Amino acid sequence: MNRIAIAITILTIISPSHVALSFHRNPVSIQSTDNTISIELAVGDEMGGANIAVADLGNDGTDEILVGAGLGSEPRVRVLRQDGSEIGNFLAYAPNMGVGLNVVACDITGDGFKEIITAPQRGGGPHIRVFDRYGEPLYEGFFAYSESFRGGVNLACGDLVGDSGAELVTLPAPGGGPHVRIWSWENKMELQEEFFAFNEKDRAGVIGVVSDKKLFLAQQHTQTPSLKEIVIHSQVTTIDEEELDLDALGLYDIFVHKGEVYVTTTNGVIYNTKTNVSTFQETASGSVSAESNGETIYTVSSRFMFTPSTDPKKIIVDISQQRLYAFEYGVLSNTFLISSGLNGATPLGNHEVLAKIPEVHYAWSYGPGNPNNYDLGWIPYNLRIYPHIYIHYAPWHNNFGHTMSHGCINVALADIMWVYEWAEEGIPVIVQE
């Protein structure tokens, strides 16, 4: 494989003096299905989404809305009032962990106040953290599964056994086996029970919710997910099971509203599993995170999840969105804004990573003394996808989300470092509009 290369063809050049620092994003908003809530969040975008929980943290009879940051944002939990004003926020993990958060709230310590529990979504390790209602950590947290697992962890919590504190349920997201673990508080979280909810070889991922001392579990990355109703007494017992036949690539969330189990799909449907009634919540990503406080259903756009692909790794560059998507076996691993070629200069079609080149010298001459000549020096992190066309770092501008180049696909530093490390030679790269 070539270690270095010199680019001597039509490539990107934008001088800093010509940069307009605007960004292409659809904001994330929290809605309620009864139209009483509409809150636009100041951070994130709809492809990265957010995750929400609703809980009365102050025991004053008024619920707060907890927002876990989505993919591409720093891992911050925000606590909002019903009118959208912010009560407070805190970092759950290191600021540079931008994989997205799952968040739940329940009284796991039995002190009468709800705690806030977080888990990284796909791309982060299974490090579960527990905070008090003010966002102060109760301890350093724990790893629910092997520290090397990067599929993400879904969460559920509630009283399963009738004691003073709620139980925490950890559930591997798509890519992990259906290994359900149940934890309770004994000055820290201690494992109390574990079992496989579905076939041990199943890698669809699991979502769950606790209600009325029952645990409801559903497969996630499948068009025909099984839904189980489980009780935990002297042993784990399945008391009901059904198969859902939904027109979607999978599920994102599960919740209980007025005693009935609902699931949300990756194409924006909120589905009542008892009445078979569906409602549609339009979002850019398709996926919806939802929560109920017993009276109101709250929704927010969640991260884009699935594509109908079985490739071990695949990159899709959408020119119309100015966005790159990275998938593993059809599950989204990352997405971020890019800048492609002006006037349709980036070649559409089915390509592949032809080479990973640590450094490329981007230079071009239009003739002696031509003011458009440039020499940008040696640029790190380059994925060649077409003769003389690269996915590469572009330190000369910060206008991602808009066409900027002469044909290459420009990427910000943190994003190119990620995709360069993740990509392998030979994986498909689809450029579409």
From TrEMBL:
<dbReference type="GO" id="GO:0018104">
    <property type="term" value="P:peptidoglycan-protein cross-linking"/>
</dbReference>
<dbReference type="InterPro" id="IPR050979">
    <property type="entry name" value="LD-transpeptidase"/>
</dbReference>
<keyword id="KW-0808">Transferase</keyword>
<keyword id="KW-0573">Peptidoglycan synthesis</keyword>
<dbReference type="Pfam" id="PF03734">
    <property type="entry name" value="YkuD"/>
</dbReference>
<dbReference type="GO" id="GO:0016740">
    <property type="term" value="F:transferase activity"/>
</dbReference>
<comment type="pathway">
    <text>Cell wall biogenesis; peptidoglycan biosynthesis.</text>
</comment>
<feature type="active site" description="Proton donor/acceptor">
    <location>
        <position position="392"/>
    </location>
</feature>
<keyword id="KW-0961">Cell wall biogenesis/degradation</keyword>
<protein>
    <recommendedName>
        <fullName>L,D-TPase catalytic domain-containing protein</fullName>
    </recommendedName>
</protein>
<dbReference type="GO" id="GO:0008360">
    <property type="term" value="P:regulation of cell shape"/>
</dbReference>
<feature type="domain" description="L,D-TPase catalytic">
    <location>
        <begin position="313"/>
        <end position="432"/>
    </location>
</feature>
<dbReference type="InterPro" id="IPR038063">
    <property type="entry name" value="Transpep_catalytic_dom"/>
</dbReference>
<dbReference type="GO" id="GO:0071555">
    <property type="term" value="P:cell wall organization"/>
</dbReference>
<dbReference type="GO" id="GO:0071972">
    <property type="term" value="F:peptidoglycan L,D-transpeptidase activity"/>
</dbReference>
<feature type="active site" description="Nucleophile">
    <location>
        <position position="408"/>
    </location>
</feature>
<dbReference type="InterPro" id="IPR028994">
    <property type="entry name" value="Integrin_alpha_N"/>
</dbReference>
<dbReference type="GO" id="GO:0005576">
    <property type="term" value="C:extracellular region"/>
</dbReference>
<keyword id="KW-0133">Cell shape</keyword>
<dbReference type="InterPro" id="IPR005490">
    <property type="entry name" value="LD_TPept_cat_dom"/>
</dbReference>
